Amino acid sequence: MLTVILLVILSPLIGWVIYWYYKVHYFEKYLHKIPGPKRLPLTGNALDIPSTLTMLPVLMDYYKQFRTNFKIYIGAQPYLFLTEPKDLEFVMIRRLYWRNPIYTSSSQRWLGFGLLTSGGNQWRKHRKIITPAFHFQILEEFIEVFNSQADVLVKKLKEESKKGTIDIYPFIARCTLDIICETAMGTSVNAQDDYDSEYVKCVNILLEIAMLRSFSPILRSVLYPFTSMCRRENSALKVVHDYTKSVIASRKQQFLSDADRNVESSDSLGRKRRRAFLDVLLEYSKTDPSFTEDHIREEVDTFMFEGHDTTATSITFALQAIARHPEIQKKVYEELQTVFADDPNRKATYRDLQEMKYLEMVIKESLRIYTTVPLLGRRIEKDVEWNGMTLPKGLMITMFVYCAQNSDSTFKDPAVFDPGRFNAENSKGRHPYAYVPFSAGARNCIGQKFAMFEMKATMSSILRNLELLPPVPDHKIALKNDGVLKSDNGVLIRLKMR
Q1: Residue 445 counted as an annotated binding residue
Q2: Which of 193, 168, 172, 190 is nearest to 181 (CA)?
Q3: Does the pLDDT of residue 136 top 90, yes or no?
Q4: Where is it located (predicted)?
Q5: How far is 423 from 404, CA to CA, in rounded Å?
Q6: How far is CA 410 from the centre of its chain?
Q7: Is residue 485 helix, strand or coil?
Q8: Alpha helices in 263-310 (DSSP H)
Q9: What pLDDT digit, counting tens, does each position of 316-344 carry?
Q10: How many CB atoms lie within 10 A of CB 414?
Q11: Residues with Cβ < 8 Å from 277, sequence gap 6 or more?
Q12: Across the chain, how many H-helices and E-strands are there?
């Protein structure tokens, strides 16, 4: 009886050991020439990265040790981290990979197989459907929304300026959520009036869990459904999915009502309603039954996340950088005074945003140092020849964009915040894949122009009304990688009325 019990207990462990040994042995036949840190049996290098807060420092330490591409193992699964621009280009321009940026099933439970997580023919079909929603003529119509929501944000921040030091991220996140709902989804949710937004909280929870799972063999195993983390994820998923379903239902009701009456969609004042991203999906679903309700929800979940959270962190880090560099803030403000010389109080136009050249350089430098998505992933679908060796099917490739953009091999004094890096003269001769904050190649960010205009409109509105100052006492940001770069201890600044 005791023997049977011992066999029942030990059999899974023995199976795990055998599986680990043969899988690592298989991959090492191909990867043995690539440097990497010493790994432990069964867990690999997973114990080196216990949290999302330690992830980037540990990975950067590996890079400093090897000064080139390197590999790590999470359990028996190898990850090849690419740090050189030429190697990022090699991966980004090819179509031999399935994209899975957060590496785990968590992303699919949340986003399904939307534009961010799908691959192959489905990705190409959906990209083709969605592309018209980001035509420059449509983007120009969104400027009004950027301005109106920025006005609400400025009003909130003026009230907060009386309190001294504040964490600016929650205010920016609620603003970008309002913007994406009104522009891309065609519905208003008034998130800026909800100081305790459950949606924003739950998105942050899902991102953190996804990254924790990607670097933990235990959390990626069959044991995960029995953990408290899984229960926490399920609760967050319900909130996020219910939120997006309500957004879809609101717009669909208006869309079907207008279609039944055979009229152009219009608002309460009789003005032609903007054609939203969600309208494009609803229109297409009427002509192609294979584009289902689930496909619509997956794409909406994807754009709700990408359109609010990534932009929110990008704006937040750029504002704190400006607050810490008064000479840069002065130049930005002088440029805005020139752009709005005819009327300092008028709203920004499409042309105004195009003329904000120095502000754009500031944003680009912030995106370099505070890389919005530090890691981009691919899973190889078939063996690939690379640098004189074979990369085997099943290998996970991680494009370490944060490292590439903060490496002294490409950027002199990379820790120094210098917007001048992105003027025409200094950009000459730089490898085109040394700076890829919106990815690159066929799978580049479809909303990058949208995001840049939104960032310019929001930041210019803030800076025309408020002076940004560093917190007292000084506050050192604790960067963490939750799939999207965040600060674990907030982003604190002080605000002063102009």
Answers
A1: yes
A2: 190
A3: no
A4: Endoplasmic reticulum membrane; Microsome membrane
A5: 19
A6: 23
A7: strand
A8: 277-287, 293-305
A9: 999 999 999 999 999 999 999 999 999 99
A10: 15
A11: 130, 133, 134, 183, 184, 185, 303
A12: 18, 12
Instruction: Select from 3.40.50.10740, 3.30.2350.10, 3.40.50.1220, 1.10.630.10 the CATH code of 33-497.
Output: 1.10.630.10
Helical pair 293-305 and 277-287, crossing angle rounded to 10 deg = 160
- Full 3-state SS string of 8-57: HHHHHHHHHHHHHHHHHHHHHHHHCCCCCCCCECCCECHHHCCCHHHHHH
Helix axes 169-183 and 293-305, enclosed angle (nearest 10): 140
The predicted pLDDT at position 263 comes to: 47
* Half-sphere exposure in the Cβ direction for 189 (13 Å, CA): 30
C-beta atoms surrounding 325 within 10 Å: 18
Question: How far apart (Å, rounded) are the C-alpha atoms in residues 307 and 484?
Answer: 12
374 class by beta-carbon count within 10 Å (0-12 exposed, 13-18 middle, 19+ buried): buried
Mean pLDDT throughout 378-389?
91
Determine how β-strand 97-99 pairs with β-strand 375-380. antiparallel
Contact 338, 427 (CB under 8 A): no
| Plot region of 67 (φ>0 → left; ψ -120 to 50 → alpha; else → beta) | left
Structure tokens belonging to residue 361? 């350089």
Altogether, the residues listed in the chain come to a count of 498
Q: How far is CA 254 from the centre of its chain?
A: 30
pLDDT per residue as tens digits for the range 413-434: 999 999 999 999 999 989 999 9
Tokens matching residue 262 = 């055979």
Query: Is the whole-model pTM more than 0.90?
Result: yes
Give residue 305's identity as a one-letter amino acid code.
F
Name the nearest CA neighbour of 239 among 184, 209, 201, 211: 201
